[in-house]
Design goal:
Blueprint: E1 6-9, E2 16-17, H1 19-32, H2 40-43, H3 50-58, H4 64-79, E3 87-88, H5 92-101, E4 106-109, H6 114-123, E5 132-134, H7 147-156, E6 163-167, H8 170-179, E7 182-186, H9 198-201, E8 204-206, H10 211-223
Parallel strand pairs: 1-4, 1-6, 4-5, 6-7, 7-8
Antiparallel strand pairs: 2-3
């Protein structure tokens, strides 16, 4: 592992276990159509695909107009229910404390829009430690395009080669590699089933957030 002077994280499925509330909003849309709820265990694997991805997997096949109607309902419900049952993954608070102690800045690069992301940051008490937030609508491009990651590196004032970008979705790895960062594949997250191929194999493999604590401590020891 090369020198790491900053870290970037995806949100859903990487720092935040948000599937309970995302699937809850999906089931609310299903309820409005007279459909029974789907189990969290079945639908959580689609939680990193956004509203449309969840709806396509969890609703009957429909035309674009109907899908957009469902999307509007989903987002309206989720906007006021985004942190009812969601929580930071085990090990994440300790990881962020370790980063603070090591004076390693960190930020978020998510495809979630800003109006949904910032209330979650506040509810999860992430605001005090975070150094940058780049959302899906911050720029005209979103992951897997490298621009959001490049912007975040610039805000952190760290060259991409010395930034580790951690994500559970193949789009995270693609964006990080294209931007020139080091990458870590979070196999504990929602998109882990698609974490395959050369880009993933060339990334740090994570199976629990706490594994990064060991990395941070190792870097401190090495630096000392």
């Amino acid at each position: 592992m090369k020198t790491i002077k900053a870290m970037l994280f995806d949100l859903d499925g990487t720092l935040l276990d948000s599937a309970p509330d995302l699937v809850g909003s999906l089931n609310w849309v299903r309820q409005t159509e007279g459909l029974p709820p789907l189990p969290l265990s079945e639908m959580s694997q689609y939680a990193s695909r956004g509203a449309i991805g969840l709806l396509k997997q969890g609703m009957p096949e429909a035309d674009e107009v109907t899908l957009e109607t469902w999307r509007t309902r989903f987002l309206e419900h989720y906007a006021v229910n985004s942190y009812r049952h969601s929580s930071l993954y085990d090990g994440v608070p300790e990881l962020l404390e370790a980063l603070a102690e090591a004076e390693i800045p960190w930020g978020l690069v998510t495809n979630k829009p800003e109006y949904l992301t910032h209330p979650i940051i506040e509810a999860a008490n992430l605001g005090n430690g975070i150094s940058c937030v780049v959302c899906g609508d911050t720029l005209s491009q979103s992951k897997p395009h490298p621009a959001p990651v490049s912007l975040a590196c610039g805000i952190l004032q760290t060259i991409p080669a010395e930034v580790l970008f951690v994500g559970d979705d193949i789009r995270d790895i693609q964006a990080g590699k294209a931007a020139g960062t080091q990458t870590a594949a979070a196999h504990y997250g929602y998109g882990s089933g698609e974490l395959k191929g050369d880009l993933v194999n060339d990334s740090l493999q994570l199976h629990h957030p706490a594994e990064l604590i060991d990395l941070v401590r190792h870097m401190q020891t090495t630096a000392a």
